[in-house]
Design brief:
Number of helices: 12
Number of strands: 8
Oligomer: single chain
Largest sheet: 8 strands, parallel, barrel
CATH class: Alpha Beta
CATH superfamily: Aldolase class I
Helix content: 40-55%
Bound molecules: 2-phosphoglycolic acid
CATH architecture: Alpha-Beta Barrel
CATH topology: TIM Barrel
Length: about 250
């Protein structure tokens, strides 16, 4: 099965309207000829509208960085998948390690979020990954197994039509310490095996598993060369149009 590469930029808590629009508009020009890769950018909520306008008619899709489990109501400070879709998003990131770590998001909550986002028509990048302590303590496989089994519990075959898994080892995020291509491949193959066990061989074969954690233009090609690496979720290097475009192009 050949899986179309999925490369997404997670802008995190960065970029006011000016730089956001500038970055998006520059990126639009730089990746205009790219056809074989699905490209997504995930800015902060407040600039989604402006960035959506800047990339209108391009090959770049828009995504949110988080969403809640309800469509509307008395949930101060939250945002719903319907609202993200309303402003032009087709994707949402769920379960980023920063959400798990700083905002206490549990496997059970993330499972609800993933299911509700899919039921609401958004495509989901579902993030998993172990910390350095967990890896050094020999718990990596157990952690990934828990995150996959609980986080994706109850998802249907149709849900998987719009779901990618992002393997992001926490020790590689924002640290400049990228997983080696071999480490990434080992984890991705393990995660694909988990999906096969929990769902089916067909779903495991089709689901895209992105790598995230200190992806840069100069390590993108080697990582993408691994059979189970199907794209990236890029943080720091996605904040500038030229480095994100170089990652997209180097991964081809
Ligand atoms: P990084 O972040 O590329 O800056 O390491 C990746 C992520 O958190 O998605």
């Amino acid at each position: 099965m050949s899986r179309k590469p999925l490369i997404a930029g997670n802008w995190k808590l960065n970029h006011l309207t000016g730089p956001a629009v500038e970055t998006a508009a520059a990126l639009k020009g730089m990746v205009a000829g790219v056809t074989g890769t699905e490209i997504v950018i995930c800015p902060v909520f407040t600039v989604l509208d402006a960035v959506g306008t800047a990339i209108a008619g391009s090959n770049i899709a828009l995504g949110g960085q988080n969403c809640y489990t309800k469509e509307s109501g008395a949930f101060t400070g939250e945002i719903s998948p319907q609202m993200l879709a309303d402003v032009g998003c087709t994707w949402v990131i769920i379960g980023h390690s920063e959400r798990r770590q700083y905002f206490g998001e549990t496997d059970a909550l993330l499972n609800e979020k993933a299911k509700f986002a899919r039921a609401s028509g958004l495509k989901v990048m579902f993030c998993i990954g172990e910390t350095l302590e967990e890896r050094n303590g020999g718990q990596m496989n157990a952690v990934l197994e828990r995150q996959v089994s609980k986080g994706l519990e109850g998802l249907s075959d149709a849900d998987f039509d719009g779901l990618a898994i992002a393997y992001e080892p926490v020790w590689a995020i924002g640290t400049g310490v990228v997983a080696s291509p071999e480490q990434a491949q080992e984890a991705h193959a393990f995660v694909r095996g988990l999906v096969k066990k929990q769902f089916s061989a067909a779903i495991a074969d089709a689901v895209r598993i992105q790598y995230g954690g200190s992806v840069k233009p100069d390590n993108a090609k080697e990582l993408m060369g691994k059979p189970d690496v199907d794209g990236f979720l890029v943080g720091g290097a996605a904040l500038k149009a030229d480095s994100f475009a170089a990652i997209v192009k180097n991964a081809l």
